[in-house]
Predict the 3D structure of the following.
Amino acid sequence: MRSVENALQLDIPLNAQFIRNLIMAAHGVHDHIVHFYHLAALDWVDIVSALKADPKKASQLGESLSNWDQNSAKHMKEVQDRLKTFVSSGQLGIYANGYWGHKAMKLPPEVNLLASAHYLQALHFQRRINMVVSILGSKTPNIQNLAVGGVANPINPDNQSALNMERLYYIKTLIDEVQGFVRNAMLVDVAAVAALYAEWTGYGKGVTNYLSAPDMPMDTKGTAFALPGGYIENGDLGTFKPIKSFNDEYFKNGVKESIKHSWYKGDWNKHPWEESTDPNHTGMQYDGKYSWVKAPTFNGKPAQVGPLANVLCMYAAGHAGTKKYVTEMLNTISAVAKTKVGPAALHSTIGRIGARAVRCAVLLDECTNQWNALIANIGKGDVKTFNAPNFPSGEIRGVGFHEAPRGILSHWAVIDSGKIKNYQCVVPSTWNAAPRNASDAPGPYEASLVGTPLADPEKPLEVLRTVHSFDPCLACAIHMVDAKGGEIVKVKAL
Amino acid sequence: MQEPTITILGLGNILMTDEGVGVHTVNEFDKRYEVPDYVEIIDGGAAGLDLLPFIEGREKVLMVDAVNFDQEPGYIDTLENEAIPVKLATKASMHHLGLMDVLSIVKLSGNYPKEICIIGIQPKSLELGLDMTREIWDKKESLIERIAEKLNEWKIPCALRSPQK
């Protein structure tokens, strides 16, 4: 959509920008909460060990780390009882499918219990923040309100069938409800996991060129953004160069994709506007073509994208909220680990998880900021949400980018007299999961796994920890029940 | 309107041929049958955690989905309660949060339905495509009957809608 708007150089009404921004921010918060608690946490937190915890000590520990009001000893006991029922019901077979009891699991029982309690609480809060997305976007995750030129949300403060004051204040309530959990449970849990697995600040670094999009446009043309983005080379924050607008030439000219090692016809390294996508599966050739993923590069180099890239860019750009939460998190990690942990630790597997929590807190604050901006703008009497597009005859080109939960997403459109002539998406997981590129440099996943120690090669939990830390976007298509509940994910070490 | 206590849930991805069989079946059932207000019929798609509100705390949940029984395509069977392999499986991706994970999360949070039944069918194709294969399409009637039978067994009234004028 932004790519088409960019091709048309269309102005987007302020209300539409703020509504889109609210949806993006709430969606990001939802995604990050679910990623940490319901996907990544189980790589680090051992639910079975939580059965051995002393609920009183778990509660004391929780209360010493933050003033979250859902850490009582009574609550910890309740959660532990539920876990007992869950684990003892013989059919579960969790040892077969989870990695619980694995040698690389190191948290004390009390921390495991505390994290398990928050795992269950997170279910409630992820749903609340996702309601913001569904109220504004009609459904989630595939929202229905976006249109080239704006959004299909009519604003009328007094009308039952429009976006009105009641709905807007309900959204505000939902945003406020989640604040306590993210600040006092999530940020603290992530810091505790990071501190107690401090050796993981030394693994999983991979590619340290970081690329991230500025997002949350605050004007109609996309030249001012609430959250900065740009490029950092070689992990050196001093090299940060910002991406400044939706028309930024530095970004527009920097992106290319190679198919030297990907299952597509030919061997080229092209700009997305010039690309084609002609699948040609030729089997596994470890030195030749071995992936469905193309290899994107920024100015010829692979780049890591995602919350870590975003947080580092925002930090380098001096974004106040990001600086605050990064400092807070590093302080908590240092306190729990009883040693000074600095920003260099961020270039790691655990750093990616930490950065995701920081970004979650930044985005949640941004929900409030965007809500305030929307209310203020409506207060001025502006209720416009849409500018109709007009497609000229002849060829036009556009690029649209967005800092999605998994990193920079860019769509590249070539439009000929109102018809799509070429459309290429360079998505976050393509950057991170890229095979080797035209000059055979590996992408972030590949590079990050080099040197990872394995406690048990048959159960490569450590590999999953690093791959999960990128929040991969894979396998969203098929969720089939296996009647026997067999192992579906296979990790193969080569 | 009464708060729903029973869910009929069609699961699957309609973009992947037979993977969408659950959704197609449940939608067709909804068209043909009248059920009481306390029964909620949902196209669950491949929604993952968003299914929680439709499962948590419900008395009974009836699901229709493509299931790998290691049988010939079109083989139909039901999995009930303890026979459903509820477990938190290792995942490669968050998008991988499947039904089993959702059910185990419901179990962990202590609001597991009193009865759960999955009517499953062995799919033939999981390729990209909007149309189901002939073999599986032909089994749709049997699946719809199974839903009606199960509701009958649960003593939930369901009757064919009167023909449209």
The two ends of chain A are 40 Å apart (CA to CA).
